[in-house]
């Protein structure tokens, strides 16, 4: 009877609310890396990539965000790196 | 040469001490020689859960500071053959023991015992670091609540950083009726999020409270929680045991509800 009422009222089960809140809070917890670390990663990426391509350093942006469900909700490093020119030879 | 297993959780009050007591007793029922160490210095509790509080003479701090021999501080449980308790100090603080001292102590106990279980204090500070210092394996206890699972996640990260790989998870105080109606996270929800192997599920059972009142581990009683702890002990001991199916009252009415319950 209880289930029927819940079904009719279309309220999301509290377990799903808990799970979603937990996922979000863990993305934040797990990605707890300092701005200094992000800067170091950025510097290294620029050095490595500059060997092969010319990149727009002002447009360079990296951040840690949530990924989709296929990777178990693990945090991911997402980088947006505009390319000015490909270096050839 | 035995093995040292730390039982930890991050969050307090999820049942670390009860779990340690029951697994310790459970392993001794399997004929193993077991020492349980209460590493929660200043907040001694494992002794009362095991019902051994009146027999304490020396404690963990006495042992590591050389006031007594390890053997003198170990209390033999009279009901469980081969179960020994090394109690925490009640009047000292967590800095009375160092990580190096704990390592030496665990190594020493592993020479004589098949299993050395360490009951870790709540938190992620010195007490936690001490408790995991001598451990070969780790068991993480949680409950199906957001706060407890969050702390378990943090602890798993810290354990891996300390080279304690592949910790195993125990989900304590599961209320199957609530899981069934979608008001409690189920085991799959939790293992999905934490991404570690489960080694046991313990139902929320009033028998645990009754046993703890009496100072007798529930593992030796005929109860669902007792069975759950016997199974966990067996799995830790390397035996494969199927998980208990709590969904036993599966009558026609339940099946009908399941059929019409589209929300799941």
Please specify the SSE layout and strand pairing.
The complex is a heterodimer of chains A (89) and B (264).
Chain A (H helix, E strand, L loop, with lengths): L1 H8 L4 H17 L4 H16 L2 E3 L5 E6 L8 E6 L2 E4 L3
Antiparallel strand pairs in A: 1-4, 2-3
Chain B lengths: L2 E6 L7 H14 L4 E5 L7 H5 L9 H5 L5 H4 L1 E2 L6 E4 L12 H14 L2 E5 L6 H8 L3 E6 L3 H16 L6 E7 L1 H5 L6 H8 L3 E6 L2 H9 L9 H13 L15 H9 L4
Helix pairs in contact in B: 1-11, 5-6
Account of the 3D structure:
The complex is a heterodimer of chains A (89) and B (264). With 89 residues, chain A is of the alpha+beta class. Chain A is built from three helices and four strands, in the order H-H-H-E-E-E-E. Chain A has one domain. With 264 residues, chain B is an alpha/beta fold. Chain B is built from twelve helices and eight strands. Chain B has an eight-stranded mixed β-sheet, with helices on both faces. In chain B, helix 1 crosses helix 11 and helix 5 runs parallel beside helix 6. The longest helix of chain B is centred in the middle third of the chain and has 16 residues. At the A-B interface, helix 1 and helix 2 of A face helix 7 and helix 9 of B.
Main beta-sheet strand count, sense and barrel state of chain B: 8 strands, mixed
The SSE order of chain A reads: HHHEEEE
Low-pLDDT stretches of chain A are none
- Oligomeric state of this protein: heterodimer
Give the rounded overall mean pLDDT of chain B. 93
Overall pLDDT metric of chain A: 78
User: SS-based structural class of chain A?
Assistant: alpha+beta
Structural class of chain B: alpha/beta
Order of helices and strands of chain B: EHEHHHEEHEHEHEHHEHHH
What would CATH call the homologous superfamily of chain B?
P-loop containing nucleotide triphosphate hydrolases
Count of individual beta strands of chain A: 4
Indicate the proportion of strand residues of chain B. 15-25%
Q: CATH architecture of chain B, please?
A: 3-Layer(aba) Sandwich
The helix content of chain B, as a percent range, equals 40-55%
Strand order of the biggest β-sheet of chain B: 3-4-2-5-1-6-7-8
Secondary structure tally, helices of chain A? 3
Low-confidence stretches of chain B: none
């Amino acid at each position: 009877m209880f289930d029927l009422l819940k079904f009719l009222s279309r309220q999301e089960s509290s377990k799903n609310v808990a799970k979603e809140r937990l996922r979000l809070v863990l993305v934040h917890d797990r990605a707890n890396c300092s701005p200094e670390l992000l800067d170091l990663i950025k510097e290294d990426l620029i050095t490595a990539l500059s060997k092969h391509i010319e990149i727009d350093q002002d447009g360079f942006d990296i951040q840690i965000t949530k990924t989709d469900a296929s990777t178990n909700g693990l945090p991911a490093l997402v980088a947006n790196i505009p390319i000015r020119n490909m270096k050839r030879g | 040469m035995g093995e040292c297993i730390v039982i930890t959780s991050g969050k307090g009050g999820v049942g670390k001490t009860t779990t340690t007591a029951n697994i310790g007793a459970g392993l001794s029922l399997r004929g193993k020689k077991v020492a349980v160490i209460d590493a929660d210095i200043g907040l001694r509790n494992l002794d009362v859960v095991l019902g051994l509080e009146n027999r304490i003479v020396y404690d963990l701090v006495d042992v590591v500071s050389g006031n007594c021999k390890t053997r003198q501080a170990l209390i033999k449980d009279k009901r469980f053959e081969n179960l020994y308790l090394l109690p925490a100090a009640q009047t000292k603080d967590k800095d009375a023991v160092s990580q190096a001292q704990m390592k030496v102590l665990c190594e020493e106990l592993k020479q004589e015992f098949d299993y050395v279980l360490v009951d870790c204090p709540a938190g992620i500070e010195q007490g936690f670091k001490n408790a995991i210092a001598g451990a070969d394996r780790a068991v993480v206890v949680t409950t199906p609540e957001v706060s407890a699972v969050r702390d378990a996640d943090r602890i798993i990260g810290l354990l891996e950083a300390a080279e304690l790989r592949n910790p195993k998870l125990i989900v304590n105080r599961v209320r199957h009726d609530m899981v069934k109606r979608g008001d409690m996270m189920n085991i799959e929800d939790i293992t999905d999020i934490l991404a570690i192997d489960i080694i046991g599920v313990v139902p929320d059972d009033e028998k645990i409270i009754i046993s703890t009142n009496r100072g007798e581990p529930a593992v030796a009683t005929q109860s669902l929680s007792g069975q759950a702890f016997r199974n966990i002990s067996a799995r830790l001991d390397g035996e494969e045991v199927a998980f208990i199916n709590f969904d036993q009252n599966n009558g026609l009415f339940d099946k009908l509800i399941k059929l019409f319950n589209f929300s799941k």
